[in-house]
Design brief:
This protein is mainly α. 69% of the residues lie in helices and 8% in strands. The strands form 2 sheets. A two-stranded antiparallel sheet has the order 1-4. A two-stranded antiparallel ribbon has the order 2-3.
Length: 185
């Protein structure tokens, strides 16, 4: 038994050695492989409502909170917030936020609010290892958390319908974006 423990300790030391950790960090192959494995595991859970709930709650919470906060700030008046998944046709709806005051000026930003999670993901990427240090465990935690953040930053098809459902609002934000680009460049 002692030999097994010594072999495990040596293997663990090798895995956490700077050379091996650098190989993981510098080789995008391992990163892509881990993300694809996570994605496959997540999609394998879609047969069970309970597993879908457990796997998706952290990301759904981030996604729906972004909708809620931006809607609240822009007077869309959130009326409901749910993380309880339910089946809708062939897919699951993992969460939603209801609003009672969607108007031309708040529809697009309220619906596209999850894109703000990309900023969170950017800073998470930049500072994560500075805060926690690098080990094989923190590397895999980084991949898991960053995958959750980025995947849930993507607006749903319903989000796109709400965002682009009011032509006047779309034109307003297009003009504001052009003006901002002119002043920034």
């Amino acid at each position: 038994m002692i030999y097994i423990m010594e072999a495990f300790d040596k293997l663990w030391a090798l895995i956490n050695s700077p050379e091996v950790l650098r190989m993981f960090l510098e080789n995008r192959f391992f990163l892509i492989l881990c993300v694809l494995v996570l994605s496959a595991l997540k999609h394998a859970t879609y047969r069970s409502l309970v597993l879908v709930s457990l796997i998706n709650i952290p990301g759904t919470f981030l996604h729906e909170t972004a909708h809620f906060l931006v809607g609240f700030l822009l007077n869309a008046r959130p009326t409901s917030f749910t993380l309880i998944p339910h089946r809708s046709g062939d897919t699951y709806v993992t969460g939603s936020v209801g609003f009672k005051n969607i108007r031309f000026y708040n529809a697009l930003p309220s619906a596209m609010a999850p894109l703000l999670l990309l900023i969170v993901g950017y800073y998470f990427n930049r500072y994560f290892f500075e805060c926690v240090g690098l080990s094989i465990w923190t590397y895999f935690a980084y991949i898991l958390l960053q995958t959750i953040i980025i995947e849930n930053a993507l607006p749903s098809s319903t989000d796109f319908k709400v965002a682009f459902g009011n032509l006047f609002g779309v034109i307003l934000y297009f003009i504001l974006a052009v003006i901002a680009l002119i002043f920034l460049l």
